[in-house]
Write a structure and sequence with these properties.
Pathway: Steroid biosynthesis; sterol biosynthesis. This is Methyltransferase. One of its GO terms (biological process) is sterol biosynthetic process. One of its GO terms (molecular function) is methyltransferase activity. It is an enzyme of class 2 (transferase). It is a single chain. With about 325 residues, the chain is of the alpha/beta class. The protein folds into 2 domains: about 35 residues, no CATH class; about 290 residues, Rossmann fold (3-Layer(aba) Sandwich), CATH 3.40.50. Helix content is about 50%, strand content about 15%. The chain has a 7-stranded mixed β-sheet, with helices on both faces. Helix 9 links the parallel strand 4 and strand 5. Bound molecules: S-adenosylmethionine.
């Protein structure tokens, strides 16, 4: 006590304050400029609106948000690809920043990080497809290519991804090059309901958390069936319907939910991310204030946080799973 009293008001205290301020400054620099929230993703200072110009982000977000107040328009399937494209312009940078290069859930694996669990999930898809070097594989709804690179690297196969969003195409190509996988991984911008690929041209196909964006599920299954060679496999995970796959002509080899016990709750990652969300929200608000992040990015981040809360409720109440997995085969003849 006497020591504290004796040192109070001395230069040591001033040095302590300076030191603390320095530490805070280094911490802020580290969070904002140096490191993505999730390793290998985007940095906060790079957040934007995908292919949209800076000045278009806020308006596109408003347009996107109000779309859901017009259910009649949602009912028109033709409007969906444009809506999905806008959505991915708005969220792709934030996903990469906060989640990484793979935009999907995966079963929690004890002792493994989120990144490792994500890779294991992708390797599982490669193994279910029995991929071998030289096989040509379709990734329908490939995002920025996290799964594509993991699957190509693990199996030695050649992966062709398709995404509706041209910003994701650019991101995926750049990541492929950096990973030294650009000879093995190709990315095309297009609609997976009308793919620019010939009939019977792929040795395998998969889609991870992507077919949910098809207004009519049978249409995306049909299109994948068309481009797959007879006798070959298609693995699809997220919201899937076995009966629809059968109607299209697929044989159903496996049908299970990777999120069911003994798997631990898939929404754990969303819940654990809450502190990070608040931190990230402050960072984005600050960057918007400085004019570094475009207006509207804060609203997009807010929307994603609400989505995470609803997804968590869906998981806790058992009414939703993001990991329903089907292994399908196109019959030989
Ligand atoms: C949740 S992300 C998943 C991406 C990737 N499979 C992954 O796990 O990282 C959904 C993806 O589906 C794509 N997508 C949605 N509708 C599409 C369509 N009609 N045609 C092509 N891609 C589409 C989106 O552009 C996005 O890349």
């Amino acid at each position: 006590m006497e020591v504290l009293e004796a040192t109070a008001g001395t230069p040591w205290m001033a040095w302590g304050v300076v030191g603390l301020a320095g530490l805070v400054a280094v911490g802020v620099y580290y969070v904002i400029f140096a490191v993505p929230a999730e390793q290998q993703g985007k940095r906060a200072v790079e957040l934007g609106g995908g292919s949209l110009g800076r000045e278009q982000v806020a308006d596109n977000y408003k347009e996107y948000a109000t779309f859901f107040e017009k259910p009649k328009e949602i009912e028109k399937a033709d409007n969906v690809p444009k809506l999905v494209d806008t959505f991915y312009n708005l969220v792709t940078d934030i996903y990469e920043w906060g989640w990484g290069q793979s935009f999907h859930f995966s079963p929690d694996v004890q002792g493994k990080s989120n990144r490792e669990a994500t890779r294991l999930h992708e390797v599982k898809v490669a193994e279910l497809l029995k991929l071998k070097p030289g096989m040509k594989v379709l990734d329908a709804g490939c995002g920025v290519g996290g799964p594509m690179r993991a699957i190509a690297a693990h199996s030695g196969s050649k992966v062709v991804g398709i995404t509706i969003n041209d910003y994701q195409v650019a991101r995926a190509r750049s990541h492929n090059k950096k990973a030294g996988l650009d000879q093995q991984c190709e990315v095309v911008c297009g609609d997976f309901l009308h793919m620019p690929f010939p009939d019977n041209s792929f040795d395998a196909a998969y889609s991870i958390e992507a077919t949910c964006h098809a207004p009519i599920l049978s249409e995306v299954y049909q299109e994948i069936y068309r481009v797959l060679k007879p006798g070959q496999l298609y693995v699809t995970s997220h919201i899937q319907i076995e009966e629809v796959a059968k109607e299209v002509g697929f044989e159903v080899l496996e049908n299970y939910d990777l999120a069911l016990p003994p798997a631990s709750p898939w929404w754990k990652r969303l819940k654990m991310g809450r502190v990070a969300w608040y931190r990230n929200h402050v960072v984005i608000a600050f960057l918007t204030f400085l004019g570094i992040a475009p207006q509207g990015v804060v609203d997009v981040h807010e929307m994603l946080f609400k989505t995470a809360a609803f997804l968590t409720k869906g998981g806790e109440t058992g009414i939703f799973t993001p990991m329903h997995l089907l292994v399908l085969r196109k019959p030989s003849e």
